[in-house]
Write a structure and sequence with these properties.
Blueprint lengths: L8 E8 L4 E8 L4 E5 L2 E3 L6 H13 L1 E2 L2 E8 L10 E11 L11 E6 L1 H9 L6 H15 L1
Parallel strand pairs: 1-7
Antiparallel strand pairs: 1-4, 2-3, 2-8, 5-7, 6-7
């Protein structure tokens, strides 16, 4: 078996106080396209999943969460790696400042109504697995 070792990650579904979903349009070198995604990234050494989620949210979007709600985590590449992603809903988000991107990151921030985000998901326009799963779990949060 081939196994790829990757550190744990966090994935964040940011929802503003008005219910709009915050996403980033991120350029991915692997396929040469910019697609809509939710903030995500690897945990830093010794960082808790909650702290990592809040950091990624702030760095990638400039938003601050009013509260963080854990959702079920997942193995994004289950057949080749034990890589685990912690998933959170960041609720009551408010814009706090500018993005703090790494030099290699290229992304823009946009907000979508829940209906717009759901329509993008249904139309197959959300092709990132982290983001699709976060949005689907987010739909369950709105139902409960």
């Amino acid at each position: 078996h081939h196994v790829i070792e990757i550190g744990d990650a966090v994935c964040v579904l940011p929802i503003r106080t008005d219910g709009h979903v915050v996403m980033v349009g991120q350029y991915r070198h692997t396929h040469g396209e910019t697609r809509w995604e939710v903030p995500a990234g690897r945990l830093e050494t010794g960082e808790s999943p909650e702290d990592g989620a809040l950091r990624e949210l702030r760095e990638e979007t400039g938003y601050r969460a009013g509260r963080l709600v854990p959702m079920p985590g997942f193995y994004p590449t289950n057949g080749i790696s034990a890589h685990w992603s912690h998933l959170f809903a960041a609720l009551d988000c408010e814009l706090e400042g500018q993005q703090q991107l790494d030099p290699a990151e290229r992304m823009i921030v946009e907000t979508f109504t829940p209906g717009e985000a759901d329509a993008m998901l249904r139309a197959g326009r959300i092709v990132d697995g982290f983001s699709a799963l976060a949005l689907m779990y987010g739909q369950l949060l709105r139902v409960s």
